[in-house]
Amino acid sequence: MLAILIPLVLWGCVDKSFPVTETYTATEYRTEYRTETRTEVQKEVIRSGRDVINAYGWYNTGTTSGTWGSICVTQPFWYFCYSVPVHSITSVEITSYSQFPEIVACDMERIEEFGRTGAGDPYEQEARYCDWLNEFNSKVGNSRLIGKYSTGSDPLLLKIDTSGARWLSIIIQGNAGGEYSTFSSATLKWADTRDKEVKKDQTVEVKLPVTVEKQRTVVNTKKVPFWEAIIK
Asked: For the chain, which residues make up each domain, given as ranges?
């Protein structure tokens, strides 16, 4: 009789799903804000001043014409050069009354004027002048450009940053004129600095790992008699 009941019971079993709640751990990140101190190096002005500096200047009349011909053609131009004292920070202020379109300022060592005389072969003189002018243009082209400044009929205060420059050369193309008599001196603004360490507080965001317990529902399956499967 028992041998007959066992197959009947087994035959009557089916799979049934059961929801099960289980606990597990996970890592989450919590945001915190902390104050940290950092050190910065800043420039501290220890002395400053204003001085008048004079210019070395000359006017180049350009090439001659007529019997000398025109071996080397160029516009006339003014040249001014200022020796800039060594300081941490420097700037030069010049009041210009120029009506010519542009002033070019560059970091270029002083260039002496070409001495043209009336004696000697004029063609040889013009050839030497051309060599000098080519060398002058080459030095201008290879120098560090500080800035180009537009001019006008009204007085214009030029503020030229010369920090790091030992020389300030200024080239102005144009004809001769008395308006440049006030362009021979300039005001140098200067300051000497030193490095100073400064401590500053700053707020930083920190992500901290945190282990937390969580629960989730999973489904397990097991065999039960068929009559249990139909009972909810």
From this structure: 2-39+198-229, 41-197
The residues, any chain, with a CB within 8 Å of residue 10's CB and separated by 6 or more, are none
- Give whole-number Cα distances, 62 to 78, 173, 180, in Å: 10, 10, 17
d(CA 39, CA 200): 6
Distance (Å) of CA 123 to CA 76, 130, 220: 19, 10, 111
- Start-to-end Cα distance in the chain: 32
Reported CATH class of domain 41-197:
mainly beta
Report how far residue 160's alpha carbon sits from residue 53's, in angstroms, rounded to the nearest whole number.
14
CB atoms under 10 Å from CB of 166, counted, come to 13
CA angle 96, 156, 100 (to 5 degrees): 60
Residue with tokens 């420039």: 43
pLDDT, one tens digit per residue, over 147-163 is 988 766 566 778 899 99
Q: Which of 99, 89, 85, 100 is nearest to 168 (CA)?
A: 85
Q: Are the C-beta atoms of residues 216 and 24 closer than 8 Å to each other?
A: yes
CB 129 within 8 A of CB 60: no
Is the Cα dihedral 53, 82, 115, 73 positive or negative? negative
Say what the pLDDT of residue 8 is. 47
Contact (CB, 8 A) for 18 and 167: no
Burial of 160 (0-12, 13-18, 19+ CB in 10 A): buried
Q: Residue 187's pLDDT is what?
A: 92
